[in-house]
């Protein structure tokens, strides 16, 4: 994306790529730690998006009740 902001789907794909690389077992300790740290940050960002979506759905459901 040109704005530099990744979508949820893009971040999920990045996480999947990180997991694949970590599971390969062909990385140095430093590379493994760097990828793990990157994965933790991406997972946190994904969780925030999911939390916001859940709140939005809950709000919509409450207004329709």
In short:
The protein has two helices and no strands.
Question: Helix and strand layout, with pairings?
Answer:
Layout: H1 8-24, H2 29-64
Question: What labels would you give this structure?
Answer:
mainly alpha; elongated; 82% helix
What does this structure look like?
- Helices cover 82% and strands 0% of the residues.
- With 65 residues, it is mainly α.
- It has a domain at 9-21 and 29-56.
- The mean pLDDT is 94.
- The helix/strand order is HH
Overall pLDDT, averaged? Answer: 94
Q: What global shape is seen?
A: elongated
Q: Given the helix and strand composition, which structural class is it?
A: mainly alpha
**Rg of Cα set:** 16 Å
Distance between the termini: 38 Å
Report helical residue fraction.
Answer: over 70%
The total strand number stands at: 0
Give the count of helical stretches: 2
**Unreliable sequence segments:** none
Please give the largest β-sheet. Answer: none
How much beta, percentage-wise? under 5%
